[in-house]
Amino acid sequence: MTEKANHNLQVTADGRLKHLLTLNGLGKDFISHLLDRAETYLRQTGTLPARDYGLQGRTVANLFFEPSTRTRASFELAAKRMSADVLNLDVKTSSRTKGESLLDTIYTLQAMQVDVFVVRDAGAGIPEFIVNNIQPHVSVLNAGEAAVSHPTQGLLDMLTIRQHKGRLDNLKVTIIGDIGHSRVASSLYHGLSTMGENEIRFVAPPGMEPDMSLHPDATLYDNADEAVSGADVLVALRIQRERIDDPSGIPSEAEYMERYGLNSERVALAASDAIVMHPGPMNRGTEITAEVADGPQSVITQQVTNGLAVRMAVLSAVMEAAR
Ligand code: NCD
Fold first, then answer.
1. CATH, domain range 3-149+304-322
2. 162 ligand 1 Cβ < 6 A
3. What's the gap in Å between 280 CA and the centre of ligand 1?
4. DSSP bridge partners of 235
5. What's the topology of domain 151-299?
6. Does the beta carbon of 71 sit less than 6 angstroms from any atom of ligand 1?
7. Stated pTM of the model
């Protein structure tokens, strides 16, 4: 699908967010407005969003066909904070495991007047497939699509960076680890390359490199120390074993830490005011040391708080488009 077509699917004719499938193709002003909207839910940077009644009478269904802690909890809490009715489909007991097709599950929930589907699935293209098969008043939010895209994570990462750096332009951002299997890296890449002239550096173990033809504005490094040198933002990623068919090439935990892990010595090579990020779940001692994860440059818990504000902003934006 082309960027233009994707944009048309996500945005209404009068320029409102209808679905959130990817950051790829969303404009700079559009992303800025979503981040500004998220800020309005943070009373003060770092504190929890206040209650809001914007989704009263609406129903949000969380359909997580892949494991999730942060994303699912924050979508649930975001919808509840906005006074929506929230339905969390327990995937292990859902009929999809009994052979009911995904669309039958969607149609069943649609018949119960669900307004927003929040979907995480291991299959590429599933959120868009749902968009193409639902009633016009319903919205779909991608909560993690295969290794392809995780747009709300990209937004919360950018909100966190903007809070610390005051801008989303002219930054050196190093993403380190298993980028090839990471939808987080991909969404952050699309967001940052839309927002400005950023130097996006990737460094990944052999076999975990991204397809650089999909990330033409980034530079792939071999050496982690070089890649973090002078960086403003460091993003650590875990090894995403669930997407690796042949585990024989996966480095040992010690080797991953030695060559790609964020430890204090490596972080010291970045700018002195660099921030350290991680989308979670974290494996302390593999991709990041406890000292760095809990250290003064870490903004990892702030990312989680911002996730709630971003999800409130996205939910309210799509429900506004439905009016
Ligand atoms: C990420 C995901 O699911 O893509 N987690 C998250 O949503 N915070 C990253 C990961 O699983 O490693």
1. 3.40.50.1370
2. no
3. 6
4. 175, 277
5. Rossmann fold (3.40.50)
6. yes
7. 0.95
